[in-house]
Automatic annotation (TrEMBL):
Residues 105-234 form the GST C-terminal domain. CDD domains: GST_C_family (cd00299), GST_N_family (cd00570). This is GST C-terminal domain-containing protein. Pfam families: GST_C_2. GO terms for cellular component: cytoplasm. It comes from Aureoumbra lagunensis. InterPro entries: Glutathione-S-Trfase_C-like, Glutathione-S-Trfase_C_sf, Glutathione_S-Trfase, GST_Omega/HSP26, Thioredoxin-like_sf.
Length: 253
C-alpha cells in the first residue's frame, strides 16, 4: 500500500532537457510528493551534447539509475525498490499507484489516455523529424505534418478554453505541454512561424496560457535559450542519441 512513508522513498531519474521526463516530473510535482528525490542524469558523452554514451559507461557512472532503467533511458523511477522506466510506463505507474485520488484522471480517463498516446505516437515524432532532417524539403514536409497534427490535437480538446478538460490539469496536458514549450527550437533552427501568434491555433493559445501559468509545470521549465543550445546537434545532424536514431527522417519521410 502507498503510505506517507513510502511516498518519501521515491527516486526520480530525470534530465532537465528531456521533454519526456518533464511530463513525469510535472506529474510528481502536481501530486505534491515533496519527499521524492530528483536525480539528474546526463546520458550523453559530454554535457549539452547528443552523443550517445555507452550502456557500460552509464552503468559505471550511474549504477543505481541502471537498476531502474536497464536500457539507460530517462525518465525512470525507483519507488522503494520497484523500478519503472520510459515516459509512458512512468506516467501509468504514477496514475495507478501514486495518484490515489486520480486527480489527473478524474474525468473521461479513456479519452485522456487516447489523447496522451496520440501526442506521443503520432504528433511528437514530427517535432523531431523536422529538427533532424537536413534536406529543406524534408524539413518542410515534417513541419507540415507537425502542424497538421497540432490541428488534430486542438480539435480533440474537450472544452473550449483553458486546459484540455477546461478548468483543471490532466494527464492529457502533460502529453503536449513539453513540446509546445519547445516550439522556439523549431523557430530558431527550422524557421517555424510563431504559433503563439497564429489565430489558427487560438484554442491552443488558451490552453498554453493555462498550462504555462501552473506552478507545478513552471517548476520543470528550463530556460528556452538553454534548450535551443542543447538541441543544436539534432538540428545539425550530428546527434547519435536514441532519439536521433528513433526519429531519423529517412525512416519516415
Amino acid at each position: 500500500a502507498v503510505t506517507a512513508a513510502t511516498m518519501q522513498n521515491i527516486k526520480f531519474y530525470c534530465g532537465w532537457f528531456c521533454p519526456y521526463a518533464q511530463g513525469v516530473w510535472t506529474y510528481l510535482e502536481m501530486l505534491s510528493i515533496h519527499g521524492f528525490e530528483y536525480i539528474e542524469i546526463n546520458p550523453y558523452k559530454r554535457r549539452d551534447s547528443k552523443q550517445k554514451m555507452s550502456l557500460e559507461e552509464k552503468a559505471r557512472l550511474y549504477p543505481e539509475f541502471i537498476k531502474a532503467s536497464p536500457l539507460g533511458l530517462i525518465p525512470a523511477i525507483d519507488h522503494d525498490g520497484h523500478f519503472v522506466s520510459t515516459c509512458t510506463d512512468c506516467m501509468k505507474y504514477i496514475a495507478d499507484v501514486l495518484d490515489t485520488k486520480k486527480r489527473m484522471l478524474n474525468q473521461d480517463p479513456e479519452k485522456l489516455w487516447q489523447f496522451f498516446h496520440f501526442c506521443q505516437q503520432e504528433l511528437v515524432p514530427y517535432f523531431y523529424r523536422a529538427l533532424l532532417a537536413q534536406e529543406k524539403n524534408e524539413q518542410n514536409l515534417a513541419l507540415q505534418y507537425f502542424l497538421d497534427h497540432l490541428h488534430i490535437a486542438q480539435a480533440q480538446m474537450l472544452e473550449a478554453n483553458g486546459f484540455f478538460l477546461g478548468d483543471h490539469f490532466s494527464i492529457a496536458d502533460l502529453a503536449l505541454a513539453p513540446w509546445w514549450q519547445r516550439l522556439p527550437i523549431l523557430m530558431h533552427y527550422r524557421n517555424l512561424h510563431d504559433l503563439n501568434k497564429d489565430p489558427a491555433f487560438a484554442r491552443l493559445h488558451s490552453w498554453w496560457a493555462a498550462v504555462s501559468s501552473d506552478p507545478s509545470f513552471q517548476k520543470t521549465m528550463a530556460p528556452i535559450s538553454n534548450l535551443i543550445h542543447n538541441y543544436r546537434e539534432y538540428a545539425n545532424g550530428s546527434a547519435t542519441s536514441t532519439v536521433a536514431k528513433t526519429f531519423a527522417p529517412q525512416k519516415y519521410l
